Amino acid sequence: MATFSLQVNGQASNVTIDDPSTPLLYVLQETYQLNGPKFGCGLGQCGACTVLLDGQPIRSCITPISDAAGHSVTSMEGLRALEGLPNPDELHPVQQAFLLDQAMQCGYCVAGPMLYGYAFVRDNPGASRADIERALSGLLCRCCAHNRMISALQRYAEGNF
Amino acid sequence: MKPKNPFKLKGAEPLSQEQVEALEFLEPSRRNFLKTAGIMMVGFSTAGALATKANAQSPINPSGTIDNTQVDNWIAIGADESITILAGKHELGQGMRTVQLQLAAEELSVPLDRITLVLGITGITPNQGLTVGSLSTLTQFGTAGLRVALDTARDALLTMASQYLDTPVSDLAVTDGVVWSKSNPSARVSYGNLIYGQRFNLKLDPTAVPKDPSTWTVLGQAVGRLDIPAKSKGTFQYVQKVRVPGMLHGKVVRPPTLGAHVQSIDTGVLKGMPGNPQAVQVNDFVGVVADTEWHALNAAAALASVISWSDGDTLPAQADLYTYMTQQPSADSFQTNTGDVDKVMATAAKTLTARYLYPYQMHGALASSCAVADVRGGTGKTATVKVWSATQGVYFMQTTLAVLLGIPASNIQVYFVDGSGCYGHNGADPATFDAALLSQAVGKPVRLQYSRRDEMTAGEHYGHPTVATVKVGLDANGGILAWDYETIKMQRGEGAINVPGNGIPGALAGFPTSPQGVPTATPNNPTAATLSNGSNYIPSYVTSSLNGVNYGTGKVSSHRVLLRVVASPLWTAWLRSPDRLQNTFAHESFMDEIAASLKVDPVAYRLRFLSDQRLINVVNVTAQQALWDPRPSPKPGNARTGVVTGRGFACVLYEGNNGYCAMVAEVSVDQDKGITTVTKVTTSLDSGPVCNPDGIRNQMEGQVIQGISRALVEEVKWRGNIITSGDWASYPVLSFGDPLPQIVTIPINNLKASPTGAGETTITIISAAIANAIFDATGVRVRQVPFTPANFLAAKAAQKV
């Protein structure tokens, strides 16, 4: 058994687990009961499991819990808390942009495009649509709402939400 | 105003504790609805007598069957004005939850937020078969669906109100669920006070008249999808997140090759592994359960390493697949046959023929499929089952589980819970069967989620590979005298619908699979009862005549369409626009080939042979919107090296009655590297009155991009006897970062027609539109999907372009 301390959506906590190689995704789903990061492929290929580790997007399905220890983890649910916005249960502006553009169909993949897009726009003020599109390279959306998601992120980048 | 009860009150049947527990696994937004809504309040309330009076009563029999002809099995209105709608068409990411709510709000004249919609629970919602085939809108707006139940209920309420307010129905209007007299607006009574939580006790009246679409105020509006707020926040609960008390996690261990049998298993390997893993074996079905998913994964890997399997089936070499298909015995049937094709073809001035090839493709659900099953009591009459599944049909799941588990269907309850977008028979049902087999073996609830490899190589069933051959005879003026089509498709299993062996888990567990490709003495001709174009075997340009009646959309009067089904080595089932896409790829490519051989404009040439005005209209609208330049293909002046551009056209009446669509695809092709990029797609759809303009655009856009992925990239691969397409690297699809086209969608709001489907129409025509655009740009005719660089360059070399 090993105990790891990590901060999840703004809350500091300890997790005790028998196997330090357990993927972070399973801990977030079972211990923290989060629905935002999802199991898509378990191989780091699709992006459905994306969370922010110290603000940067990672694939939680291939990140051992031991690597996340000592860091802050933010899932889709915690975006408002990450920015210290009030009413943490409301939509974050980037989520508001996805809602406005109805930027999904089944929505299972959305953690990837949303969180990669969010971090890219935050780090690259004035990013163009083409820049955003490139920043999402490799992520998958099987319902193929690509254009709408890019539009939503562009809307977010322009503050138009 | 004191409410008057025109009907006799019948006993309430509250939800059982088990149902209430099950509802706890619905996503929070639905749960909150339920807590304030009539029918479900019964279950949440302990005040029985109060609940009896205050809440709507629907005859709930959790394990029984539902009589779809009874209004009460679709709608319940509480004395508190709450409205519960029960429906059998599931949310698959296509927006059906929202459209069904819009329909209910529209026909009943009530606000959207007053309605609770319950989808897909056996014994509670109507049995509407499967949510497939772009048929949900057609069904729900049709003569036996939700719309009729709503209109019957509304008419009954108006009749009651007429008595209550002592004024004729023609004097009544409804606003927000309150019926009022137009001649005396202060005379009014609410639905809740009229029906007062009682049953309607009425049969659906197919003559009940729907609202005229030109008066719609809720339908026809871009109502935002109800599930998108929770999905944006990340709180939405998919079936992958259903957890029940005492639940274990399961994994399957599949044979490395199809048809392999277990020779030996050394389950001792699990001893001492964390999570108390336990092996399960039922014939060749092998799995493992453990306390957590990670422990189950590790145990499954350990178990896989100590199983000895027999060799299994020999697959045809991938490169020889299409030749192999033409050499197999086949079950043949004519889809249409005027009987004169050979005779007419012999009189032709010229004949043309071509063959089109379509590979196995995957649904490739983004989420690895998942289900939770709770089988108690082993097998037999006293055993019980609850499953939570992203199935396309809870009743088929129920009756198939009954056979698979040896438990009466009446003891089995199935709850639909949203999964990821499914696009057909993906892994949702197989995962449910796997979870049920594991749960039955260990006597505890088991959650099973596939690994990506399980999903892609031994979970989902693939779309049909097809070899399609078209031949036409032309007269001296380029008129089409006869159209002759033969298509060979491969099938295996086709999804376990009441036959467990028609799916992978059931077959592994020892259930027989229905044979495919068994030849009949002579192929049957269709009869008036069997003639349909549900799979678009029949091209748009023929009369499809039978006994002197034309059922088709075109003018060519001599035609023959032969379907040959052969046995597939790989498992197959319906994949978005099944066969409709493959057939339309062949027919619409070939129409382009004929026009090119005659050196005429392919749009004008199509119009020459179309008779259906709605199809003609979408062709014209699309061509105009895309600024179509009427001229023959290939495009004059294009070099035969380097990057060139071109445009292609395609159209179809989907399923013969379920949406008219047309498309212009514009491409650029690097002829030296063979790389095709779709740069712009203009596409229109006439599926009757547009129920939700943004929803239909979302569907059309998604189909364009998914269609590009299937046309340019996707093909299931195998080497030797092993399927090698087991992840997103070995089964690539279009991803972010790949070039995306500009998409112009044109939903045609045809208020004169009845609403039909929009979920599979657009994807049906895009492969042909792209192939035709590639020809326009390069002079190279690609007849094999996907249009990869290798396939393009091979076609270019073979055609000496």
3D structure, described in words:
Chain A has 161 residues and is an alpha+beta fold. Chain A is 34% helix and 16% strand. Chain A has seven helices and five strands, in the order ββαββαβααααα. Chain A is globular. Chain A starts with a strand and ends with a helix. The mean pLDDT of chain A is 97. Chain B is of the alpha+beta class and 801 residues long. Chain B contains 22 helices and 28 strands. Chain B has a seven-stranded mixed β-sheet, with helices on both faces. A five-stranded mixed β-sheet of chain B has the order 12-22-19-18-13. In chain B, strands 23-24-25-28 form a four-stranded mixed β-sheet, sandwiched between helices. In chain B, helix 5 packs parallel to helix 7, helix 13 runs parallel beside helix 14 and helix 17 runs parallel beside helix 21. The longest helix of chain B is centred in the first third of the chain and has 20 residues. At the A-B interface, helix 1, helix 4, helix 5 and helix 7 of A face helix 9, helix 10 and helix 20 of B.
Short recap of the structure:
The complex is a heterodimer of chains A (161) and B (801). Chain A has 161 residues and is α+β, with helices and mostly antiparallel strands.
The general outline of chain A is globular
Note the beta-strand portion of chain B. Answer: 15-25%
First and last CA, distance of chain B:
84 Å
* Largest sheet entry of chain A: 5 strands, mixed
Mean pLDDT reading of chain B: 91
Question: Which two chains share the most extensive interface?
Answer: A-B, 56 and 57 residues
**Broad structural category of chain B:** alpha+beta
* Assembly form of the protein: heterodimer
- What is the helix/strand order of chain A? EEHEEHEHHHHH
